[in-house]
Each structure stands twice: as structure tokens, then as C-alpha cells.
Amino acid sequence: MIRIGFAAGRGGPGDRLRFWALFAAAAALAVVALAAVTAAATYDGREARNQARGPLITERPQEAVALWREAFDAVGEVPHTVVYLHPLSPGAEPPPGLSRWPAPGEVMLSPELLREGEQEGIAGRYGRHAGTIGAAGLVSPSERLAYVAPARAPGAGEREDWRQVRGFGQAYPMGEVLHERPLSHVLLTLGALTGVPALALLVVAARVGSRTRDRRSSLLQALGGTWRHRALVNLGEAALPAAAGTVSAVLPMLAILPADVRIPPTGYLLDSGDLRAAWPMALAALLLSFAVTLGVVVLLHRVERDGTATRPRSFSSRIPRWRLAGCGAGAVVVALSQYLRGTPGLVAFITGTVAMWALLPSVAAVAARRLGGALAERGFRTGRPGQLIGGRWTVAHPGVVVRLALAMVIGIGLVCQLQVWNSRLGEKAAAARASEARVGDTVLSVRSRDITPTVVDELSHALPVGSHVLVLTTDADQRGALLQGSCRALRSLGLGCPAAPEQAGGDDPRVTEIRLWHGPALRAQVAPSALRLDRLHSSLIVTSEGPGRRAEVERAAYALVPAVNVETPVETWLVGAAGKARLNNWLLLFGSLGLGLLLLAGSLSAAAEFTRVRHVLAPLAVLTGSHAIHRSVAWWHLTVPLLVSAAVAATVSAWHSVFFIAVVQEGSFSWGMLAAATGGCALLAAVVGVLGGRTAIHAAQQWRPAAD
């Protein structure tokens, strides 16, 4: 039976298309499986390294080998962790990734932080650069992390902000781990945006040239063959292309094993060591994907189980009702997800989305089938043979519409979802971006609980020429933020020198931005004495006459106070927006791959349909004496049902996107994007009809009667 199937795969019409369709589907499914393995292996490696480097906090001074303190900073709107270390026992083992404890005033940076922060002078921001952090101390090669030894030992009054460490070896939230998404979220996103399109491609590939195989299955059953015999024949036919496609998926995996590879457009560096350690899991994933490919091929070629009928019952004959019920159930789950908050709501939304979009083409096929009946009836009444034939063909073969509509239906959904995700920046982030464009780094906020009047005085003298230090208190007396400074500093902002707090006017853009982000009731006052800060409600404001002074201000501040925070007034919003943009890059990666697979599925399905249509329509030229019948049938059988499918997809996409916004409570929906995507699908439907008619005309010109 397997040999018969292998021979059948090389002797029927459209075998070349069938081979490459199964090859592409098997390769796509194997790539998705390997991507899931890569994600799992990466998370395992990250967890192991984070477990090894985390500090063991102790309350017993006699056990402590070092003091530990954390702070946060950003380079290019990407945050990173700064760990301050003060060894109490220099002979103790330093944190993993460090060959020695940094000496006072030294800093050790991760390679990625050193590379990305070169333009911002990161090497000298915290002290003297003394080396890089090894791979054992980083959860990933792309992690941004700094270990800093303060120039002077923390005093007795400062130790309350430091933790005592007796060693290293427990999971601890720092660095990339603080912003890490659960593995389940990654796998769900990969499955929804890439896995479902890969399965759609597999379904299309399994049904390419299905008419010939359905007739063969009918013949086998008529000869007494059972489902096992038919399964063996189908396995023999599909084994070679499926095996070749599965093996080809190993090539990109082999390419990233020798060295760390950066994934575009995310910028994330994959640890090649994690992937090399996961080869048993990768092998199992390849075998599983190969088995799934063959299983789908076998399950999609069935005939009547009772053995009393010889006609094959394929998907083109009847659409199972469970598909329609499953699509409705998925829509209900999506609707109910808005009432669940947090992870349960997200899981419910993604699960309902996968079910709804995977089965939505069947709903479109039912609608097209009913439309086909109406078209056939109208064509019969009006005497239009093209409409009559096209309508009846749609009624008889709704599975054709499903395969052709699959790409555009899920494609519209993917495009709309990516647009909604990319819109989730919020009004505050947009305002922060505009503020940065107006004033840049001419206004900086300097925060730390350790800033004393002496530190303020030293910082004032260490700043570059043209920079001034002021104090901003946001909760002075509940009447508005209060800006205090020397008379010279206030006049540099176009303000007067009031002895008592008064409304801060003027049109200096720096004052305008401070009012924008700290309240319109901003007041100004000359500092009555040395500048003092409220530890809870005050921060230093450093103003400069021109941009480009931030690196100098940071060096001066970090040299005086460890764990100080230097940022623009809008940096928190910009960092948050950048974090969402990085998440959107992952969605763009998975979504683009999925959309490419859907387009490939649509192309293969269209090619298979052209192969079938041209042979069936060819004899009509003899009966009608005109080629117009070919164009008319292709229009009513292919274009019109696809237009219906595009309309259904557009309606469901709009509803689905609005519900997604309700679940996450953020983002906006672009009706223009939906109109553009729907218009593109409508154009594709028209092109499919035109090409179907042309190929049928070409086949008709070469057709000769045969004794079949």
C-alpha cells in the first residue's frame, strides 16, 4: 500500500504542485515547532542563570560578604539595572560573570549595554570602566546590566538603603527578568500568529489535488479496502515531501547554533548555548511535526465509514456543523474575556481568537454556498449560463471557497490586530514624545534619597557652564509645585526673584514643560538659604542653555551620589512606550511570518483551483462557441464568493478588534486600515477570477475530446 501511494504521488495530474505544497507546509510546521523549542530552551537557560546570580540576603552582619544596592537607568529609552557592590570580604566569590570584585570607583558593564550606550558615554557614566560581565552573569547576551563599586564606602547613616549579602544562588528580580513575559504568553502568541497560519497552509496543501485522491480512495473502498489501507496509501504519497520539508527546517536551526544570533526586528540575542543544550527536545519536536503533517493528510482524505457507499465524502461535499459551532463558541469566549481581568482574560481572549479565526472560513463557505444557490436560481431564471454554472459549482464545492478564503480571512484579522497592538501607546506617551522634541535634555531631573545640601553645592560647581540647579517640591502645601533656586538660576528661565512663592509665568519652553508635567499651578521662589530637599516630595532640576549636556550632568551626579536617578521629566513615559514598541516588534515578527504563510497558502490553493477549473471548463467552448462563458463562470464561482468572504472577515475583524481594546483598556482601531486591507482582498478576489478565466480559456484552446 505504501509503494502504491508512493507511485501515485508521481503519476497523477498536479503532482509537482502537490509535492511542493506538502514540502512547504511540513517545513512551516517544523519551523514553528522549533521556534517553540527555542523559546522553551531560552527560558530554561535564563532561569538557570538568574538562579545562579541572585544575591542571598542576610540579616546577620557576621555572615555578610558584601553590601548590595540596586538602581535603574536607561540608554536610548531602554531601561537597565545598575547594581552597586561594596565587598566586605574581598576573598569571597564575586557574582557570576565577574572575574573579581570591582575596585572602588570601577564599573563593569554587560557587552550589550557597552555597545548600545557608546554614543551616550556609558563607559564613563558610573566610574572607570574595568571590564565586561561574562555570559554566566547575564540571563541573555542582550541583557543590559552594570556592576558598580562606589568610590567611597557607604557611611553608617546610608546603610539602611543597602542590603547585606552572604553569597549568590537564588532567583532574583533584576535586569531583563523585571520585564520578562511568561513563557506561556510567548507560546500562545507564537501559536496564534504563526502556528495557526502554518496549520492553515497544511490543510490547503493536504487538499491540493484532492479530487484525484478522493476518486482513488473511493476505488479502494469499492475493492474492499479499509481505512487502514487508504491511510497507508496516503502516507506513502505524502511521506517523501513531508520528510523533505521537515528536514529542511533544520537548516535555519543549524545556522544559529555556532554563535549568538540577533533576531530582527526585535534586536534580541539568542544564546546559542541554550539551543545546543536543547537538541533532544528539538529532535522530538521535528518528529512530532512530521507525525502531525502525515496525520492531517490522512484525516483529510476519508470516505464513508459504513462501507455501503463508494462516493468519497470530502470537505468539499459537506461542511461539518461542529466547525460552525466551534467558530460561534470562539466568538462567545472572546466576548466573555472582557469580564476577566489579568492573565485569565488574556488566555480566554487568545483561545477564543484561535478557535474563531481557524473556523471562520467555514462560516464564510456556508454563506458562499447559500449565495451560490441564490445565484444559480437567478441565473436559471434570467438565462445566464455563467451565473448558473458558477452558482451550482459553489454549492457543490464550498471547500474550494474555504481554501481560497483562508488567506484573506485570517490575513485581515492579523493586520487589524497588529494595528491595534501598535496603537497601544496612549496619549501620555505621545505627549512625552512631543515634549522631548521641544526641549530635549535641557531639563533634567536628579533624584536620590542621599542628596544633601553639601551634595547640591558640589553638584552646582561640577556642572558644565550654562547649567543651573533648582529644587522642585511637588507637595509643598497642596497649592501647586514649588520651584526654588538662586536668583541667577530663576532668571536663566525668564523668571523673577520673588521672596515668597508666586505664579511661575514667562514663555521659556523649559518652564512650559515643567508646568505641563508637574501642574499648571507651578510657583517659583528664591531659595531662602542653601537648597534643601524633602526626601519624599523633592527632586533636583538641572537646566541647561542648550542640548547635549546630559552625559556631563550624569557623570557629575554619579560621582557624588550612588544610585542617583538622572532623567528627563518625560523619560518614564518614553521608556514605557519603548517597552511596548519592543513587544510590538515580537508581534510584528510572528505576525509577518504568519501572514507570509497565509499568502503562500492562498497562492497554492489558487494554483490548485486553476489546475482543476481549466480542465473542467475547457469543453464548454465547444458547446457555447464563445470564451465569455469561462470568464463568467470564474467570476461567479471564484470572485463573488471571495468578496463575500472578505466582507465577513472585515465585519468580524472590526468586532474582534473593538473587543480586544475593551479587554486591554487601551489602544484605538483604524477604520482606514480595515478599509485598505479589505480593498486589497477585494482586488485579490478580482485577480483570482481573471486568472481563472484566462487559464480556462488557454486550456480550452488546447482541449481535444478523449475517451474518458
Polypeptide structure, described:
The chain is α+β, with helices and mostly antiparallel strands. Helices cover 58% and strands 11% of the residues. The protein has 22 helices and 16 strands. It has helices spanning 2-8, 15-53, 111-116, 183-207, 210-222, 227-248, 250-255, 272-277, 279-299, 321-336, 343-382, 385-396, 398-422, 426-439, 453-462, 487-491, 509-518, 550-560, 571-617, 620-624, 628-664, 671-702; strands spanning 55-57, 66-75, 78-87, 106-109, 128-132, 145-148, 163-168, 261-263, 268-270, 443-447, 467-473, 482-485, 502-503, 523-526, 538-544, 565-567. Strands 1-7-2-3-6-4-5 form a 7-stranded mixed β-sheet. A 7-stranded mixed β-sheet has the order 13-14-12-11-15-10-16. Strand 8 (261-263) and strand 9 (268-270) form a beta hairpin. 45% of the residues are buried.
Name the poorly predicted regions: 304-316
Please state the average pLDDT score.
82
Radius of gyration: 33 Å
Strand order of the largest sheet: 1-7-2-3-6-4-5
Number of helices: 22
What is the general shape?
elongated
Q: Give the terminus-to-terminus CA distance.
A: 26 Å
Helicity level, as a percent range?
55-70%
Would you report the number of β strands? 16
Q: Which class do the helix and strand fractions yield?
A: alpha+beta
In percent, how much strand structure appears in the residues?
5-15%
Largest sheet: 7 strands, mixed
